[in-house]
Amino acid sequence: MTFRLLRTVAAVAALASGTAFAAVDLPKLNVDKTQTSVSGLSSGGFMAVQMHVAYSGTFKKGVGVVAGGPFYCAEGSITNATGRCMASPAGIPTSTLVSTTNNWASQGLIDPVANMQQSKVYLFSGSLDSTVKPGVMDALKTYYNSFVPTANVIYKKDIAAEHAMITDDFGSACSTKASPYINDCNFDLAGAILQQIYGPLNARNPNALPAGNFVEFNQSQFITNHGMSPTGWAYIPSACSGGQQCRVHVVFHGCQQNYTLVGDKYVRSTGYNRWGDTNKIIMLYPQTSTAATNSCWDWWGYDSVNYAKKSGPQMVAVKAMVDQLSSGTPASTLPAPTGVSTSGATTTTMNITWNGVTGAASYNVYRGGNKVNALGVTVTNYTDTGLAAGTTYSWTVKSVDGNGAESAASAAASGTTTGTAPPTATCYTSSNYAHTTAGRAYTSGGYTYANGSAQYMGLWNTFTITTLKQTGTNYYVIGTCS
To answer: Which residues are catalytic, by number?
Structure first.
C-alpha cells in the first residue's frame, strides 16, 4: 500500500522551519512479518528483552541488547531494579527468572518460549559502564542460554565505553557518561546488531538520508499516558513507502533519551537508519514522555504490575504499533485508471467518472489525498458528497486487485461545486504559549492542544510556532487559510 509520502515531506519541512504540525497516523505497509526484530539501550534494553520474550512469536527474528538485563529482573521492585539489576549483579536470581518465564508461558501470559529457539541475539556491555554493570549483561547471557542456542548469541564487551549507545562517527568521547548518552567509540553498534539478526546486509547509506523518510506518528492512537508521549517516530525507507516488501526493527531509547529531552539525536544519529535505508528495514522509535519515571521504559513496574507480560500497557501499545505498521498489502500490478473526469456539480456533490481497468476488483476514490468511499466502488463512477459550496476540489482514483492492493493514483481531475463559497476562515500564527494565553489552545502535561479539535501542537513554549485555523466557535484546527 502506498504511503502518503507528500504529507510526510510537508510535515518534516514544517519541523525544520520550526512550525508545529499534526502527527500522522502510523502507515500500513507491506511487511514480512517473519522478519520483525527489536533492540534497545538501558531501560530500552530491558524493554527490548521484555518484548522479545513476551511477544516471541512476533520478535522471533532476534534482539539486540545494550546495557540491559534478564527478563523480569526487577520482579516488580524498584529496589531490585536499582540494586541487583544495575549495580550489584551478583544478586540476580537467574534460575528463578528462567522458571518465571517458563511458568508464564505455560499460562499464556507470554508467548511460548520455543519461539526463541530461532532468534539471533546480540549483547553489548561497555567495560566502563557504571550505570548497568557488565555483570548484569553477563546474567542476561546466562538467562538466554536457557532459551536460545549458544551459536545464535554474540556478546561483545571489550570496548572501554561508558553507559551509552555506541557509534563509529557521532557522539561524545567513548568514556563519557552524559546526555544524550550516545558515544563515538569507532564501532558501528547498530550495524553489528542488525547484521547479527539479519545476516549479511547491503552497505549502509553513506549520504544524508531523505528528510521525507522521517515520520512523526500519532502514538496516542495506541496509548494515552502510561508514561508514553503523544507521538513517536519512524524511519521509512523510500522503497517501503513505495509498496515494496520490507522488514521492521523496533528501537527503544534509554532513560533521559526521549525526543523531548534530546531532540532527534537518538532517532537520527545512532546509525540504524543508514542500514535500514539500503536494506528495506523500517525503524520504529516508540517514545516515552517526561511523565515517565526518569523518562524510562517500564521494566520494574512503575506503571503496571503486569509490565513484563503481554498485557502490560506499554507492551500492548508497542505491539499494536508493529501490527499496524505490518498490516499493509503488497503493491498491486494493476495500472492506474485513466480518463478521470468530474461532472454534475451541485452545491454539495460532484460526480467522478473514469475508464475501467481490466482485472480490477474495485476502485477507491481520493479527494485531496484522502479516501472518500467507505466500501470498494465496483462501477466506474462515484458521487462524492458533503462538499462546500463554491469550492474547487481535486480527485484521483486507484484500481484495487482481488487481494485489496491498490494501484498508483490516476492523474488528478478537479471540479468546482456550485453556489457561493463560505466565508474565509480566520488563521492565527503564534507561539504555542501565545495561543494558550489567547484562548485558542490549552495545555496538558507540557504539551499544547487546539481548542475544539484537540489536535496535538507540540511543546508548550514560546519557541514552537503553529498556525491555527478557526472553523467554528472556539473550534480550531492546525492548518492555513490559503
So the answer is: 42, 129, 163
